[in-house]
Description:
The chain is mainly beta. The protein is 12% helix and 56% strand. It has one helix at 2-20, and strands spanning 27-34, 37-46, 49-58, 61-73, 80-92, 108-121, 127-133, 136-138, 145-146, 150-157. The protein has an eight-stranded antiparallel beta barrel with strand order 1-2-3-4-5-6-7-10. Strand 8 (136-138) and strand 9 (145-146) form a beta hairpin.
Amino acid sequence: MKKLNILLIALVSLLSISAAYSQDYRTGIGLRAGSTNGLTIKHYTKPRVAVEGIISSRWRGLGFTGLIEGHTRAFDVNRLNFYYGAGAHIYFWGEGRRGSSPFPERNSVVGLDGILGLEYNFREIPINLSIDWKPTFNFNVADNFWGDDAALSIRYIF
């Protein structure tokens, strides 16, 4: 019972701190929905610099993306940020799923990514909403530019 009380106190403290500092969060974990759907985690390494990892699905394959992002206040609105950045990705398709991809001759696609977006951090609750556009350039396929990756993300921030 004592361990349960300590766990509850720690959880309430964490949620209180998250709510109080949701404007300047350190880490956010959530869902990404758009032309690729998946999970996103964003972590600030400096006050205006974050790294973001995305695990996503596209054409029944699995993709991993890593990005470095710069953030700045957008339109002079508190808790609204503009962000931009770059990174890389790799997508995999299994033997039975290659026919679902536009590249049936490939098991994987690798390339570079850019990202432009807006995010809003709610003050009252530890939630972050973002909308972005993430164009990609692939190295090992003829259809090397994907400009259709736009998504909405919702993250729990702490």
